[in-house]
Design a protein that fits this description.
The chain is 63% helix and 10% strand. It is built from 2 helices and 2 strands, in the order βαβα.
């Protein structure tokens, strides 16, 4: 889950589509503008962090749901 920015001299749409289909998260032409490159890196890193947090939250919710389900399936003796 490492963000990938494709940096290349190719600038046609077909090349961009091919890079994205291959797994690139972003596409920039050479020579890159330093400020734009850093902004894109920062954005992709923030997105990765957010996705990681959401995955962790999702895992907690599923664990809680499984626990509740397991407890409701267990017959209780009164």
């Amino acid at each position: 889950m490492v963000p990938v920015i494709m940096l290349t001299a190719l600038d046609d749409v077909a090349s961009k589509v091919k890079a994205i289909e291959a797994g690139a998260d972003d596409f920039m032409n050479k020579p890159p503008n330093k400020m734009e490159l850093f902004a894109r890196i920062k954005s992709l890193v923030n997105l990765k962090r957010t996705n990681s947090k959401m995955t962790s939250i999702s895992n907690v919710i599923f664990s809680l749901a499984n626990t509740v389900e397991a407890r409701t399936d267990t017959p209780r003796a009164y």
